[in-house]
């Protein structure tokens, strides 16, 4: 999904002029006019509880006290391990989970906003914020209830505070700080991408170091993971993320009008339709072919695809918004080009790490996570790379590749065990919408100028 920035670039969207929003004590339905990046105007019916969509509202202490009183567990189950509650609200999923230090997921719950954002063609930050507010208490309660853990039995509370949508991060942080204050528990701030990277250690026996490729709708990076909070950034997207580009292409092709794709996200629709198409029908060149580094770029490719779709619409005599007869071929070609680009940059990262003895020469591990990691075509391209470089490709199960509370709780467990970033005072804690991961050595990777052998991508 694509985040739609507000007119000032702050992520806030203003209500339609002339409408009264009311006070914080009132609950009214207001119409918010949203101008989509492609010029489409949407009017969203949205519940606002504050004077402006951007106001940061904390749950009252009384509400939190009532929430905690609702847990009436009878003694009987003795927890021998440390327990961490994880809370995730960085984008458009409200999620929570309780995980113990051995990796047992005791309870989890999630509320997805996908259906709402599909109707508007992208994530509208104030709408995402409001949906988080409406669901966070219920989701945390469901996770705790499923785990049979009372809040007082928790060892710590871990919450995503960076990076992500500011308005969404604010909801999770506000709720968590109230919970921490009431329970007098340690707080563990979580970097969203660190959590994605470490999830594999919950599902598989993976030792440090290992290489991680994180690909999603909002992120694309390659990093060497040397420890729980020890990362070397090898490369990242210089513009947009692959999932974002696939979503944009799906919208431009109007795949939401396709009978087989109407309920799918853009990336899923592209993957589904690509199975029916010929990837060789269109010849899109992978980006940055002459740049011998591990950075990624997708906006230039997106521009070329957009121009080609416009040309095909003229050839077929159809208007924008109608489905092209060649839509499946376009989907297949786009997906394959993205897969080849990702595969080549990852191949160079593996060669660089082995050249510098940062990874084992044999049986090194490549972990691929994030929402786009569930794309089987991209995964097969990466398998070709790992086979050629004597590496093992590992991916968390699909439900743990997308945003979830389990990965946040597990990251909390990892930090708790390592004694890293455990706060007993939350004074001055802030969310960070933009935040790099680890130490950036991408310039060093580029200076190495490693030539990547050509591999046949017969997928």
Shape: globular
Main sheet overview: 6 strands, mixed
Order of helices and strands: EEHEEEHHEHEHHEEEHHHHEHEHHEH
* Strand residues, percent: 15-25%
Number of helices: 14
Percentage of residues in helical conformation: 25-40%
Rg, Cα atoms, Å: 23 Å
**β-strand number:** 13
Strands ordered across the widest β-sheet: 12-11-8-9-10-13
Average residue pLDDT: 86
User: Separation of termini?
Assistant: 26 Å
Class by alpha and beta content: alpha/beta
The stretches of 5 or more residues where confidence is low (pLDDT under 50) are 1-57
How would you describe this protein?
Residues 104-410 form the Gcp-like domain. GO terms for molecular function: metal ion binding; tRNA N(6)-L-threonylcarbamoyladenine synthase activity. Its main location: mitochondrion. Belongs to the KAE1 / TsaD family. Helix content is 38%, strand content 18%. The chain is built from 14 helices and 13 strands. It has helices spanning 61-69, 114-120, 125-147, 166-183, 192-198, 200-203, 242-252, 266-274, 299-316, 327-355, 376-388, 398-401, 405-418, 442-448, and strands spanning 28-35, 41-48, 83-88, 93-100, 105-112, 156-162, 187-191, 210-215, 220-227, 230-236, 364-369, 391-394, 439-440. A hairpin with a 4-residue loop joins strand 8 (210-215) and strand 9 (220-227). The chain is globular, with a radius of gyration of 23 Å.
């Amino acid at each position: 999904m694509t985040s739609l920035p507000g007119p000032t670039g702050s992520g806030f969207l203003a209500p339609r002029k002339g409408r009264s929003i009311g006070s914080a004590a009132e609950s009214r339905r207001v119409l918010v006019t949203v101008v989509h990046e492609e010029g489409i105007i949407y009017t969203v019916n949205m519940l606002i509880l504050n004077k402006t969509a951007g106001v940061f509202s904390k749950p009252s202490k009384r509400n939190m006290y009532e929430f905690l009183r609702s847990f009436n567990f009878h003694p009987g189950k003795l927890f021998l391990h440390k327990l961490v509650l994880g809370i995730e609200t960085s984008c458009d999923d409200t999620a929570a989970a309780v995980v113990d230090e051995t990796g047992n997921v005791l309870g989890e719950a999630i509320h997805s906003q996908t259906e709402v954002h599909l109707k508007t063609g992208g994530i509208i930050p104030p709408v995402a914020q409001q949906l988080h507010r409406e669901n966070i208490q219920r989701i945390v309660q469901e996770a705790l209830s499923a785990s049979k853990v009372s809040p007082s039995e928790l060892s710590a509370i871990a919450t995503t505070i960076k990076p992500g949508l500011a308005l969404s991060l604010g909801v999770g942080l506000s709720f968590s700080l109230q919970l921490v204050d009431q329970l007098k528990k340690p707080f563990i701030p979580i970097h969203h991408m660190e959590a994605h990277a470490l999830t594999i250690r919950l599902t598989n026996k993976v030792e440090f170091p290992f290489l991680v490729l994180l690909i999603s709708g909002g992120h694309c990076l390659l990093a060497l993971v040397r420890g729980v909070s020890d990362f070397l950034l090898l490369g990242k997207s210089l513009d947009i993320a692959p999932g974002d580009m696939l979503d944009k292409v799906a919208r431009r092709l109007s795949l939401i009008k396709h009978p087989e794709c109407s309920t799918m996200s853009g990336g899923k629709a592209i993957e589904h339709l690509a199975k029916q198409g010929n990837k060789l029908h269109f010849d899109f060149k992978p980006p940055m072919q002459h740049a011998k580094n591990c950075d990624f770029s997708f906006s230039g490719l997106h521009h070329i695809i957009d121009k080609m779709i416009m040309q095909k619409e003229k050839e077929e005599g159809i208007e924008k918004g109608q489905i092209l007869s060649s839509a499946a071929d376009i989907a297949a070609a786009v997906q394959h080009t993205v897969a080849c680009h990702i595969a080549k940059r990852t191949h160079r990262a593996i060669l660089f790490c082995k050249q510098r003895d940062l990874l084992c020469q044999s049986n090194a591990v490549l972990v691929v996570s994030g929402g786009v990691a569930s794309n089987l075509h991209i995964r097969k391209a990466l398998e070709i790379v790992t086979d050629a470089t004597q590496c093992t490709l590992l991916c968390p199960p699909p439900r743990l590749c997308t945003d979830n509370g389990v990965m946040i709780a597990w990251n909390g467990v990892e930090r708790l065990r390592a004694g890293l970033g455990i706060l007993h005072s939350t004074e001055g804690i802030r969310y960070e919408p933009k935040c790099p991961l680890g130490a950036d050595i991408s310039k060093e990777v580029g200076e190495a100028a490693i030539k990547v052998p050509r591999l046949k991508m017969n997928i």
